[in-house]
Amino acid sequence: MEAAVATGSIRPADVRLTELRYRRMAWIGPSWDPATVSALAAIFGSFVGAFASTLSAWLTQRHHDRRDLLAKRISHREQLYSDFISESVRAMVHAMQHTFEDPGRLVPIYGLISRIRLSSPTNVVESAERVAKTILSTYSAPNLTARQIQSGVGKRNEPLREFSNICRRELESLKRGL
Known about the structure:
This protein has 178 residues and is mainly α.
């Protein structure tokens, strides 16, 4: 190699770099036979493959768990909103035909509003509270007959329609996350 350096075909910097490489590999051992290299490559390849497979399975399971949790949240909210609408309609019809004598009739509605407050955005909660206020104000209005109620459907300001529309938009935005 010294003759090649003297003639100029190999530069001195290349020689120093080669010597550094051999010194760095000195800690490994004096020689690496092909069988050792093949065995180590197979072992490290197995480790990398196992790690990649485990990571892939973990990520997939995590994604499925998130989707399942979101689907449960959507189902829970749909049931909660449906229960609120049913109770509110009963209370609204009662308020149209009676005076406010039994505050216990509004307990289910306020209980549902509290449950809605736990898991829903503020616009849904505010709309539910407007429904409850409308029911309370309806109790103080003159009582209506069944015929008057039937003829007035669709003409009044319907807070339940607003509540339903807000809930639908909120549930649709959650479903887009699925």
